[in-house]
Amino acid sequence: MTARRFGMQAALAAAACATALGAGAPAASADDPPAAVRTTPFRDDFERDVPTGWTFTDPDAWRIARAEDGGRVLELFGASRYEPRVRSPLNIALIEGQEFGAFDLRARVRSTVKDYGHRDLCLIFGYVDPAHFYYVHMAKAADPHAHSVFLVNDAPRLSIAETRTKGVDWTDGWHEVRLVREPGSGLVEFYFDDLEKPIMTAHDKTFAKGRIGLGSFDDKGMFDDLTIKPR
């Protein structure tokens, strides 16, 4: 084999490898239609066999599962084989082909890992691409890298919460969460179990709109009964 022919085959192999590694990433490909800003309510109860309508950092880490009551839920059951370019959550599921501006989101969430300080689940919003988005990190204990509203802006995640509690009381059962976003004022409010009193607040206008998602920094969990009402 000549050096030139070997070089061409190596380049093709590298390109194929890069394509395969990127196949599970949530960033839109050149073939994806542009996301539309949604103006009507969105709901997903996951009552189907496969998680259609979502894109994942690693599809092999997610599935539709049966809960104890027989209903179906979206489950993050494995560790994603995904390495973000900047320090940010590894396990992300994004609503496909939809963007949201101002909204009021509600969902049920359940952590399925043993208790520890950074036990977490996340809500993703204002997602532009893998290096530009916000997320709420709901964790057992707060510190500079846990239990806060975070901004990912082409740099490792930055806590932007103005107020927050010391953490959430994870149990092995289900919890109700609420996330309110008002891009005009920059307002972010996050609620856990008590849907009338926020446990985190922030103001930031970096991203006025973007995709919404579910996930965890590096843990496992379940999600159900997601509703999003544009405001």
What does this structure look like?
- With 231 residues, the chain is mainly β.
- It has one helix at 3-22, and strands at 36-37, 42-44, 54-56, 62-66, 72-76, 91-95, 98-99, 103-111, 120-129, 132-139, 148-153, 158-159, 163-164, 175-182, 187-192, 200-203, 211-216, 221-230.
- The longest helix is centred in the N-terminal third of the chain and has 20 residues, at 3-22.
- It starts with a helix and ends with a strand.
- Mean pLDDT is 88; it is low at 1-32.
What order do the helices and strands come in, and which of them pair?
Blueprint: H1 3-22, E1 36-37, E2 42-44, E3 54-56, E4 62-66, E5 72-76, E6 91-95, E7 98-99, E8 103-111, E9 120-129, E10 132-139, E11 148-153, E12 158-159, E13 163-164, E14 175-182, E15 187-192, E16 200-203, E17 211-216, E18 221-230
Parallel strand pairs: 1-7
Antiparallel strand pairs: 2-18, 3-6, 4-5, 5-18, 6-17, 8-14, 8-18, 9-10, 9-17, 10-11, 11-12, 13-16, 14-15, 15-16
